[in-house]
């Protein structure tokens, strides 16, 4: 077995790495659930009470609440994804590098 495979196996077996992987998975599933709920709620309102979304924002305007809520759902999804990426590429990447360095015997 070459050195890279041994290092990878040691990293994957490391308790700190496994803990971090569980945290990352829970965070990912949590954000996914929130975004999924947001889309399901939006579609549910469209299907069950479309009159709520076709109401104009102002009495003399043509823009409806549906436009604003639809844009909010999309922006919310982008922001949620951005937060996850920032955490995953920041905190979790740093934790991964610490484990890799400890396995390799580096500081």
Automatic annotation (TrEMBL):
TM spans (from-to): 26-45, 65-85
Top-level taxonomic group: Bacteria
Gene it is expressed from: yjcH_1
Key words, A-Z: Membrane, Transmembrane, Transmembrane helix
PANTHER family: INNER MEMBRANE PROTEIN YJCH
Database matches in InterPro entries: DUF485, Inner_membrane_assoc
Name of this protein: Inner membrane protein yjcH
GO cellular component terms, A-Z: plasma membrane
């Amino acid at each position: 077995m070459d050195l890279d495979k041994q290092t990878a196996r040691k990293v994957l077996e490391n308790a700190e790495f496994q803990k971090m992987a569980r945290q990352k998975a829970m965070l990912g599933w949590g954000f996914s659930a929130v975004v999924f709920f947001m889309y399901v709620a939006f579609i549910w309102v469209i299907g069950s009470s479309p009159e709520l979304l076709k109401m104009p924002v102002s009495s003399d305007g043509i823009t409806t609440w549906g436009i604003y809520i639809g844009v909010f759902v999309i922006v919310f999804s982008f922001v949620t994804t951005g937060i996850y990426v920032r955490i995953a590429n920041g905190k979790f990447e740093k934790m991964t590098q610490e484990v890799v360095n400890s396995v390799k015997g580096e500081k």
